[in-house]
Amino acid sequence: MMHLLQIENLTKRFGGLIAVNNVSFHIDEGEMVGIIGPNGAGKTTLFNLISGFLNPDSGTVKFKGGNIIGLATHKIVNNGIARTFQVVRPFRHLPVIANVMVALKSPRGARKIEWIKTFERKAVDMLEDVGLTELMLEPAENVGHGDLKRLEMARALATEPDLLMLDEPFGGLNPLETDFLMKSIQRVHLDHPTRGIIIVEHKLYALMQIVQRVIVLHQGEKIAEGTPEETAKNKKVIEVYMGKAM
Amino acid sequence: MVRRYLRTCYSSFTAHVFDIPPRFMVFLFLIVLLLLPMAELSPYYLSIIIQANVLAIFAVSWDLLVGRTGQISLGHAIFFGIGSYATALLFKYYGLPVWITIPIALLIGSLAAFLLGFPCLRVKGPYLALVTMAFPLIIGTILKWSPLIPIFGGEFGIRGLPAFFSFLPDPTPQVNYQRIAEYYLTLFLLFVSSVIIYKIAKSKTGIVLVSILDDELASKACGINVTKYKLMAFMISGLFGTLAGCVQTHLLHVANPPNFGLTLSFAPVIITFLGGIGTIYGPIVGAFIYLILDKYLLTDLLPKLCEYFNVTLPDEFEYAKLLIFTLIVIILVIKWPRGVAKFATDKLEDLEEARDLDERGPRIWKRYKRKEKN
Predict the structure, then answer these.
(1) In 3-state terms, what secondary structure has residue B298?
(2) Does A42 reach chain B within 8 Å, measured CB to CB?
(3) What is the DSSP string of A31-71?
(4) How far from B152 is each of B93, B100, B102, B135, B328, CA to CA, in Å?
(5) B278 contacts in A (CB within 8 Å)?
(6) Quick one: pLDDT at residue B354?
(7) ipTM for the complex shown
(8) Which of A51, A140, A201, B35 is the most exposed place for a label (fewest CB within 10 A)?
């Protein structure tokens, strides 16, 4: 069976530091996978490798059977991998709705506009998915951090990706906002049964509730993989997070 | 008591005067410009405004590239120069009329923008500024190279180019029909090109251009082919820059190396910052301020005033003029960092907002309301 995303022996070095070391995993259609690990475990680097911001030193990344290493970022996005950023990167001069329109203007975003929907209607729909319609016309520079996190997700969803990669979607959100975003991620997952989702997160409490599988990274290496319950009991994982038992 | 009364009158006056929709303001501005030749200005003043129109086209095209796309170019004179030399050479060697040379020059200009875009857009920020600055300087030097003087005319350039309206009657001391016709032509070109650029900036493509200005990486992550859009902005900007060059050449009947010079590269920068960067209408206002300041206030009005007050200007004033001009520009930019036009529109928007909320409206209404309540 062909996996949606298959990563084999991916390695990336920055000088002497090995940021990602021989990591292999795969993601199937319709699966929601969490990637966790302490700071500096190489989670964001892994994201950058998949989305084409960085080129790996060795290893392969196959998406829907085709190799995507070396492709330009925008081509990868148009192949169907969309990502958000850990530190929000809104287009500050543009209103919230125009932020989404940029993604709709990309070849993939434009392709998915049904004939009955206008460009603007589609943009409003994307904002509705994450609950930002009230702030539609507000310039992005006036919008708070929690809303920008949601905007990031709306922008990624606007390209109708087959694989959605969320880099710390709950970072800096209060419990109420976390809860809301969690629900919208779940809704997005239910609405598109074939879409794979990868979430990198520090807030394990929120993450463990929604994902089906967890991959644990530590110092660039994959140390565990399994359902949330399994990994929570894994000795190695506890060691990494809590330190060794005396 | 009196002061309070005056203030009330003033606020009611401003509330009434400024309650004009922006579209109508533009319309009024246009009407004033259209009727300007009726005021029987001397040809010198009219030529200042013609110059302002041409420079406004040039600055608006720069604003699309820099203010809207964020690709800092300090060598926009290259398009101006290409435009002026292309039309001049086409006339010199093929004797083509103006109406044919200008479209061909526009094609050459946008093609040059396309070719220049490839090396230029590989670098970013200040490096891009330096690379773009180098190109016009290189070409300007090549033009003065001695083996090429028979072709390009060296330092003197190519002279004796035809005027746009040579079929109109020759100028008399009373009236200069050619100048007036040129004025309307430049005004028409300014209107058309600024409307086209404004429409592009407001379109969906314009949104993508601003996204590149804000965050190139995020725009890539949205699936935008950034290089394509940058090249497009470069080409559109080059096209209108070339148009300005073509028109200028036929107005002054000469194409010479200063058309590639640093002064022209920096003129759109100063104009755009005066008017308001990224606004598209700002540079038009900026161009008028720039030229009126330079060619009227300092060159014409100041000596006349000094004569009136029996003050003799020192001979060194000619050299100090540029210094004074620069100082005034610096003061204006510090006073209104977002540009004069942007400042004005912001003020208007504030006033409009105040009228929406009754409580913050002019005082005269408040008092009236209070009376009503009682």
Answers:
(1) helix
(2) no
(3) -EEEEE-STTSSHHHHHHHHTTSS--SEEEEEETTEE-TT-
(4) 11, 20, 18, 17, 37
(5) 93
(6) 55
(7) 0.89
(8) B35
